[in-house]
Amino acid sequence: MSRNIKEIIQKMTLEEKAGMCSGKDFWHLKYVERLGIPSVMVSDGPHGLRKQDEQADHLGINESIQAVCFPSACATACSFDRDLLKELGTAIGNECQAEDLSTILGPAVNIKRSPLCGRNFEYFSEDPYLAGQMAKSHIEGVQSQGVGTSIKHFAANNQEYRRMTGSSEVDEQTLREIYLAAFETPIKEAHPKTVMCSYNKINGIYSSENPWLLTEVLREEWGFEGYVMSDWGAVDRRVEGLKAGLELEMPSTNGINDKEIIKAVENGTLDEAVLDQAVERVLNVIYDYVDHRKETVWDKEKDHNLAAKIEEESAVLLKNEGILPLNRNGKTAFIGLFAKKPRYQGGGSSHINAFKVSDAVSAASDFADIVYAQGYMTVEDKVDEVLLREAVEAAEQAETAVIFAGLPDSFESEGYDRQHMRLPDCQNHLIQEICQVQPNTVVVLHNGSPVEMPWADEVKGILEMYLGGQAVGEAAVKLLYGDANPCGRLAETVPYQLSDNPSYLNFPGDGEKVEYKEGIFVGYRYYDKKNMEVRYPFGHGLSYTSFEYSDLKLSKECMKDTDCLTISVKVKNTGNRAGKEVVQLYVSNQTGTSNRPIRELKNFEKIYLNPGEEKTVIMELNKRSFAEYNVDLHDWYVPSGKYEVQIGHSSRDIRLSAVVELISTVALPVKVHRNTVAGDLIRNPKTAPVISGLVKRMRSRFGKTEESEDEALSDEMEMHVLDGMPLRELTKMTGMDDGQLGEFIQVLNHAANQ
């Protein structure tokens, strides 16, 4: 339908315009009946609908409508499957239409800086490329149904502790390469209708009133055209937020902040044009939903089956010493409360009221000889001797024991961070006791973030289900018995212990600030650079078949940084059953010009192969695939030199590699001054001819010539000395005064920037 939104805004009163910039209540936006502006509803996500009409809250305390709980992002990211995430998003978008929800609040793409963050189960990955790709596909799926998304939490919201007042202290390069990069791709390419700003400050300025973040970066650089909404209760100073680019405050403030906006316009401290622009952005999104409104049937059973499929594709087989798939004809003990009452989602604003939940005991009992023992309680972390004894007896009498373990609800949730990386002590004790009597033991994990595994070497198999949604029970059984072939890959590193994590000494901060001192070395970027042993590396995951890589080809051996590089590699299924492989493409900077990670994920493809089948996988790399963020340019920069393109099964399992040379089309600005060191000028091909004359004069002054036999100062030693010697000292050695030094610096600057 065609309408003139600017004309509608001209007809609005100041009070009506101010009102459009905050919620009507907890989940609805305001309406203006006389002008035909409807009220629309938003709802929490991102892995299902948490629609509340009464007793609304944003912490998951009060009940919502019965819905379908899909696997959380901690699981779906492990699928490494763009098409699957789009299918998930499409289903959620359809559900939103059925429930008349204009916008789903998600996906959440904050980086997993520490395994302790209480909300990690909602976030995709420690890697910004993977997080961005998953989010992009999710958004495209939802918005294909005419429903908006709200990518969140923008930005650097990587902990729950003091999230509403703390400041994330992050340098510009780290912010750009790690924490903003996960937002950049989906915002530029999938065009979410809204962006949700985070609670926290960034370098001392609240996200909700940060013009650099919300206007300069988000709108002017990335081209975002929707509206920015606040996280619930994230606004400090409303008028400053409006000026910075925060259009919508949620939830309702009962008119308090509306009055602040009105007063600011009336006293001239807020330009009414800024308010008009905010209202226009909000109305554009409202009417976009209205124009795409459609009657839709919500088939919950169909979506339940999709939830099962997604979890089958996302679960990660961490270890398998020939014990899986299980023998259908053998007696198996299913041990652990989560076998009957699985933990399938996290706590807080994304908590779904699932219309049904499948459990592993019920799913397996139809076809397998199963005995069940509860093993532990989740109410308190205490060994129950009766339950323990029953579990040990069940394990002794079976051929195989499968222990369903994981984190209880109280261990991880929105609102607070984990205190440690351990499973409950009672569960660790149970696993160790079972291993004493049953050598054929498998552990199935239900958790939203990595856990320490002191028993990993004692069990024969480990299947990581993460928080797998309401169909997690049937998905687990299909994977255990081989009706589905595991194909998930870890979207985060599993360290041996919490203290190995790069943020360990700087998490969660002092309550006022948290310093991101590890810089760009987050997750595998840190572990690989340190050459540190990890329990399971980023990208790791096993299959019931095997794959072989061959014939890696690059479209170019040498290229400008503005060119695209096409990579092809052949992958063959060398096992005896069909399966999916995730082909991971990493780039390793070999230029030596700066302190870079050993390798970084820059593309991936998931392919299905029948036994003996071979396919050629084709991927592309562009400038950003090789670039680093340069703080002098305030832009992305590719240093000239060699880069290694690596094809891997994980970040620690590189199968093939080839080298490409890049030529930068951007010259870094050089500003020579009296304290510029001689070594930098000698290495710069533009200034080297100029400085070389000065070096010769210094040599002759000290009696050293090219023909000299004096070995007191070798060329190597001389270079070490010059490497750190400022121009002011070098020129003194050659008899220059300050006036001559100034003239020489001008010559060097002219040469450097030609």
Task: Write the SSE topology.
Layout: H1 5-11, H2 14-19, E1 42-44, E2 66-67, H3 73-76, H4 82-98, E3 103-105, H5 128-143, E4 148-154, E5 167-169, H6 172-179, H7 181-190, E6 194-197, E7 201-202, E8 205-206, H8 211-221, E9 227-230, H9 238-244, H10 256-266, H11 272-291, H12 300-314, E10 316-320, E11 331-335, E12 353-354, H13 360-365, E13 369-373, H14 385-397, E14 400-406, H15 425-437, E15 441-446, E16 461-464, H16 472-481, E17 513-515, H17 524-530, E18 547-554, E19 558-560, E20 565-573, E21 579-589, E22 600-609, E23 614-621, H18 623-626, E24 628-630, E25 635-637, E26 641-650, E27 653-663, H19 678-683, H20 688-701, H21 715-723, H22 727-733, H23 738-752
Parallel strand pairs: 1-3, 2-12, 3-4, 4-6, 5-7, 5-17, 6-9, 11-13, 11-14, 14-15, 15-16, 19-27
Antiparallel strand pairs: 7-8, 10-16, 18-20, 20-23, 21-22, 21-26, 24-25, 26-27
- What is the β-strand count? 27
End-to-end distance, in Å? 56 Å
- What value does the average pLDDT take? 94
Q: In which order are the strands of the major sheet placed?
A: 10-16-15-14-11-13
Percent of residues in helices:
25-40%
By CATH, the topology of the largest domain is TIM Barrel
Instruction: List low-confidence stretches.
Output: none
CATH architectural arrangement of the largest domain? Alpha-Beta Barrel
Instruction: Return the structural class.
Output: alpha/beta
CATH structural class of the largest domain: Alpha Beta
Q: What percentage of amino acids are in beta strands?
A: 15-25%
Contiguous helical run count: 23
Keywords: Hydrolase
Family: Belongs to the glycosyl hydrolase 3 family.
GO molecular function: hydrolase activity
Domain Fibronectin type III-like: 581-651
